[in-house]
Design a protein that fits this description.
The protein has 117 residues and is mainly beta. 0% of the residues lie in helices and 55% in strands. The strands form 2 sheets. Strands 2, 4, 5, 6, 9, 10 and 11 form a 7-stranded mixed beta sheet that branches. It has a 4-stranded antiparallel beta sheet with strand order 1-3-8-7, with no helix packed on it. Strand 7 and strand 8 form a beta hairpin. The protein is globular and about 45 Å long. The protein starts with a strand and ends with a strand.
Length: 117
């Protein structure tokens, strides 16, 4: 199991920016996917953005052009730069790791992002 520790959540006004960071507790071997999901009150958890260890990225339509995911394979970290934030981006954001060779997944504890109008 890999521990994922998130940081960087908080409160911001609409139009502002926040940067989330996630660090894995140990080196990750094999092809893997790291990314971010979010869950707003009363809603299901949804994908925000992912990045593979091979360099491919994927974004939810709702964040394309506003959010940028980046990862450092050597440091086992993944960041999410969030710009032009909207109130509907308010949610708990979870770091995610899926290790393809073992078909196993790990989640961080979540970090709150609140965007006020």
């Amino acid at each position: 199991q890999v521990q994922l520790r998130e940081s960087g959540g908080g409160w911001v006004q609409a139009g502002g920016s926040l940067r989330l960071s996630c660090a894995a507790s140990r080196s990750i071997f094999g092809f893997n996917i790291m990314g971010w999901y979010r869950q707003a009150p009363g809603k299901q958890r949804e994908l925000v953005a992912t990045a593979t260890s091979g360099g491919s990225t994927n974004y939810a339509d709702s964040v394309k052009g506003r959010f940028t995911i980046s990862r450092d394979n050597a440091q086992n970290t993944v960041d999410l730069q969030m710009n032009s934030l909207k109130p509907e981006d308010t949610a708990v954001y979870y770091c995610y790791l899926h290790r393809v060779p073992t078909m196993s997944s790990d989640w961080g504890q979540g970090t709150q992002v609140t965007v006020s109008s």
